[in-house]
Each structure stands twice: as C-alpha cells, then as structure tokens.
Amino acid sequence: MNRSAALQHRWIATACLLLVFATTLIFYWPDVPFVGHNAAVNVPSLTSSFRPANHGLVKPAGVPVIGLIFFGRRDRVEVLRCYLERNLVTNGGWLDEIQWVRNTHDEKDLAYLRDDILPSNPLYTEIDISEMPGSDQQDPAYENAWTKLRRGAIYIKIDDDVVFIGEDTIPRMVDLRVKDPSIFTVSANVINSPLMGWVHYHGGAMHPYLPEFPVDKSHHIPKLESTPWAYTSHPNWTGDADWGFYAEDAVPEHYHRWLRMTESGDSLPSSTAALMQRTPITKIQYDTWGTGLRSWSIAAQEHYSFLENLHDDPSLDIYKLSKIWTTDYERLSINMIAVLSDDILDNMPMTGVVDGKDNTPIADEEWLTVVMPRKLGRQVVVETDALVVHFSFRTQSGLFRTDLLGRYADFARREVCIGRSE
C-alpha cells in the first residue's frame, strides 16, 4: 500500500470514530431543563419521554377509558361536543363512555343536557349528584362526583369549556398514565392555563394582537355569531404606533375582535419584538394565581395566537416539547386531566390542612395536583404533546366580548363535527 492510500484509510478510520463519538453524545447527553428567556421564577424541569416517529399508540386492553364532563354551559359545550364525538370508540377514538355531571341550575342548559345530549348516544350517561350532601355548593359537589367513579378505569376529566382537543391528545394522556405508575395526575398541555401559558410565551408561540383600532362601537359582534376562524379572513391591525393594550386594561363595553399586528401596520414601521411590547402577554407569570389566571386580555392573546398557529401549522409543533413538564406540586388547573379511578377512590375524602386544621374539605383541583400527589410521593405532569384549548376562567369574562367563541365554533363545525361540516 502506498503512502497516499495509507493516509486515506487513516482519515476514513478517524472520521468513523468521530461519527461514533458524536452519535453517543446525541443519545446519551443528559436533558437540559427548558428555561425561557428573562426567567424570573424557579421553573420546573422537563423529564425525557421517548416518542416513536409514527406515534403508534395502542389502546390498553381491559382498561375502560371514560370521559367525565362537569356540564353547565351550553354555548361552550356545543363546541366541545364535536371533539367528544370524534374521540368515541365508535368513531375510532379511545373514549368508551362519557359521563355527564350536572353542574348548573339553569333550566335551559339542563334541557339541552336532558333532551339533546343524553338521548343522542348510548355511550352518554348522567351522574346525578343532586341529592347528595353539599350538592348545592361547588367544591363538595365536585367531590361527590369523584366518589361515583367506576373502579379499574382511566378517567379523562374535561371542563365543559374546552374548545379544542388535538387528534392524539387523549391517546397520549392515557398511554402516559398507564405506562408510568409513578404519576398520579396527567394534564394535557393547555392553552390558557396560568402555568403553561408562560411556557408557551417563552417558547415563541405568541404573536402580536390588539383589539381593533380605532374602536368602532357601531361594529357590534353578537356573542354567539359564527365568524371565520382563520386569521387570514380578517384584516391586519392598523393604528397609532404609540397605542397598546395591556394586561390591566379594562374590558371594552362592546363586542369586538382582535387583529394581527404586522411590522408595516403602524403609521411608523416596528419590529415584531417591539410590537409584542404593546400587548398584554409580556406580563404573563408562571404563577397559579398570577396574571395568566386574572387577565382576560392575556387569555385573548393566547387564543388568537393559537388560532394563527393552528392555521399556519396544523401540527402545532410550536407548543410541543416531546417531553413531560413536571409541576413540582405547584397547583395546576385541571381543565383536562387523566387519572386512574382507583387512585381517587382509595384516598377519599378530598380533605387537607386548611388554617392549621387537618381533614378540612378542599377543592378537587388542590387535592388532585398538590395534596394527594405530595402525600403519596407521586408526580403531577403535563404531557406537552397532548394539546387542548381551555376557553376561560371566571376571572376572564372579558373574553365573551370578543369574537373568539364564534371562531372556535366555526372551526369545529368545518373541521371536526361529524355530519355537521359546511
């Protein structure tokens, strides 16, 4: 072998060794916690979770998967119902049954449940807690419903104002809960959640939106009017370069829409980063009781940004981390969670320490995400690839003066509802 050939073989061998070393680093280098820029809080870490490329999840045999809906508001349930139907086993989904819990005294809403929803499908049943002690009070009523669970089942508790559920959300939540017994509660990755909204913002999922300017009080948008869901069906925002709308600003008196700001939409061009500084989302906090819960305008910007992301990239990868997010026992909103019924029934009642007094009745959210997991040494995690959208908290009533519910209804009718698409 001549000198040139020997050198060539030596370079090839060296390259192969470097390739093996690089591959080893890729597969065995420890995960780095996700921390957004300008982090001002002690942020929980991410835990690795391997996902096969084809997401080939298989429904666990012999384990019923049951939806649990605390029903009370028809206008939002009409949107949710499309997603529930899509996820029934009879339509190729994973939900074997849906149990509806009456959580209202409104006769019109109750008539919708009694006369429309329940008779429409044999997989729908009602949990009646009206005669149980404390049924006229919210927290005891919730506990009463949890005592009615069927043993040996995975329950997916879903708020009645969830207005979007990803196609693989329920399978992902169930699969994670079944495979990892160290987990007590699995939450979906919720858009409009006080904790996860902070994560979404610092992950780049938010866009600059402002209420339409100038405010046109003659442009009245009825609350339930269906309006095109795609942001491209609406004009871009235009207005003064020094005008903004912030987390603490009051709700407009009239129904209105928010529009996408662009770099050329002002009287003077601005960068996207500068535009964002005039919007509410910059004040969002990683705090259960913080601005992400209290501010209707922060929630509005989360919603309008989500609809843009849904339009531009239906996979919604910008929200997904391919890992689980551990809460470290920070109280987490339970807008959509997966639990094992036996974990709940074996640890009743829902009590904790309040003002130094043990065995005091507490809210189911506190019990499911803080008290019981901590007591048992079990995890509360967010499956970050399982996406849902939660419409509003009680503190966010201003959302009902926007056209958002109409946009979600339009998307559901066009893309989700079985036999009702336009």
TrEMBL record:
Domain of life, per the record? Eukaryota
Q: Where are the transmembrane segments?
A: 12-29
Q: Does Transmembrane helix count among this protein's keywords?
A: yes
Instruction: Provide this UniProt record's keywords sorted from A to Z.
Output: Membrane, Transmembrane, Transmembrane helix
**UniProt name for this protein:** Uncharacterized protein
Q: Which species is this UniProt entry from?
A: Cyphellophora attinorum
Q: What lineage, starting at the top, does this entry show?
A: Eukaryota, Fungi, Dikarya, Ascomycota, Pezizomycotina
